[in-house]
Design a protein that fits this description.
mainly alpha; two-stranded antiparallel sheet; 4 helices; 2 strands; elongated
């Protein structure tokens, strides 16, 4: 059950599921209960449960299989550290590219706004 501790419910659920996985209660290959079952178990909304499971997916602890469910990932199936480093580098490059593009758009917008205000004052 999610407690009113000030810590978001999805983090509490993720912490509990993570502890079960690391403690062996949820062994590799074991399916997680359905989103609805977890929502009932933790007395939380479906969206809160989905966010908690999303955290575990991002951490590589569970993996979703379309139409079958979400399963505890086998440690041997976890992405290698090198793969993660490559993904981080790709994300950084994408963020840098988006930052440059956003700066250009903001500059064009500022120029366009300045021109318009100049015309409207005449």
């Amino acid at each position: 059950m999610v407690k009113n501790t000030g810590r978001p419910g999805y983090l509490q659920i993720a912490d509990d599921l993570r502890a079960q996985i690391n403690g062996g209660s949820l062994a590799p290959g074991t399916p997680l209960p359905s989103t609805a079952q977890l929502a009932d178990q933790y007395d939380a909304s479906l969206s809160v449960v989905k966010m908690a499971v999303g955290i575990l997916r991002n951490e590589g602890l569970v993996i979703g299989q379309q139409g079958k469910g979400v399963f505890v990932r086998d440690a041997d199936d976890s992405p290698a550290a090198g793969d993660t480093a490559g993904e981080v580098a790709e994300l950084r490059a994408a963020v840098q590219d988006l930052s440059v593009r956003l700066a250009k758009v903001e500059e064009q917008l500022a120029t366009s706004t300045t021109r318009r205000s100049g015309h409207s004052s005449q």
